[in-house]
Write a structure and sequence with these properties.
A seven-stranded mixed beta sheet has the order 3-2-1-4-5-7-6, with helices on both faces. The protein is 30% helix and 21% strand. It has seven helices and seven strands, in the order ααβαβαββαβαβαβ. It has a single domain, classed as Rossmann fold (3-Layer(aba) Sandwich), CATH 3.40.50. By secondary structure, the chain is α/β, with parallel strands linked by helices. The protein binds S-adenosylmethionine. The site of S-adenosylmethionine (SAM) has 22 residues, from strand 2 and helix 7. Pathway: tRNA modification; N(7)-methylguanine-tRNA biosynthesis. One of its GO terms (cellular component) is tRNA methyltransferase complex. It catalyses: guanosine(46) in tRNA + S-adenosyl-L-methionine = N(7)-methylguanosine(46) in tRNA + S-adenosyl-L-homocysteine. Belongs to the class I-like SAM-binding methyltransferase superfamily. TrmB family.
Length: 214
């Protein structure tokens, strides 16, 4: 998702207290920002933020950080947040996930959500897929021992690729389904913007949970 340049989005983001601007300086210090020792869950590529905002609302004892690459998209999440309830357990970062290990320290993150990540269909771009062995190797550096990566997508090609990448990276597949909404894993599921759109069209939603033995 890359929305047309939204006028003033950079300025709006710069002035927003819930966007962390010194993200590399926070490495190893995220608990100080939240002022508690609650677990930290992040979503990479949160888009307009529907999923993470609802998660944060339902789970005040978990700290959430939503990461989005584009200002034009993040600004939409900020607008949505303004309309919702006040929450102190949710912050945002505008950044490319490629630099995630500059931002989070070893064991600092307890869960990583990847929702409807860009498929990068060309073989030569496979490394850019957020479930590639390259990215799993980065997540390994920040994920706590009991940590999990939870990935949802409508894209069967990307999902099959991800199912292969998990063991190739030395990770373990905890569970997976090709039809989340008709599975035992659907209880408590929070729909993302893309999930709402694709499931309305009748497309089944794939989901996997992966971890590595530490
Ligand atoms: N997660 C949302 C949903 O399910 O509705 C948005 C899905 S959209 C297809 C993918 C989002 O991931 C886009 O907003 C895109 O800008 C963001 N994204 C893609 N690659 C990224 C990266 N390397 N780092 C951070 N965000 C990224």
């Amino acid at each position: 998702m890359r929305l047309r340049n939204v006028k003033g989005s950079r300025e709006t983001i710069a002035a927003n207290d819930y966007v962390v601007h010194n993200e590399t300086g926070m490495k190893g210090h995220w608990h100080e920002l939240f002022d508690n020792d609650n677990p930290i869950h992040i979503e990479i590529g949160m888009g307009k933020g529907q999923f993470i905002m609802e998660l944060a609302r339902r789970n005040p004892d978990i700290n959430y950080i939503g990461i989005e690459k584009y200002s034009s998209v993040l600004v939409r999440a900020l607008e949505k947040r303004e309309l919702g309830p006040e929450m102190t357990n949710l912050y945002f970062i505008r950044m490319d996930a490629e630099y995630i290990t500059d931002v989070f320290d070893t064991n600092e993150v307890d869960r990583i959500y990847l929702n409807f990540s860009d498929p990068w269909p060309k073989d030569r771009h496979a490394k850019r897929r957020l479930t590639s062995t390259h990215f799993l190797g980065l997540y390994d550096q920040l994920l706590a021992p009991e940590g999990r990566v939870i990935f949802k997508t409508d894209n069967r090609g990307l999902f099959d690729f991800s199912l292969e990448q998990v063991p190739e990276a030395g990770w373990i597949l905890e569970n997976y389904t090709y039809d989340l909404h008709n599975s035992e894993y659907n209880e408590g599921n929070i729909m993302t913007e893309y999930e709402t759109k694709f499931s309305a069209m009748g497309t089944p939603i794939n989901r996997l949970v992966a971890y590595r033995e530490k």
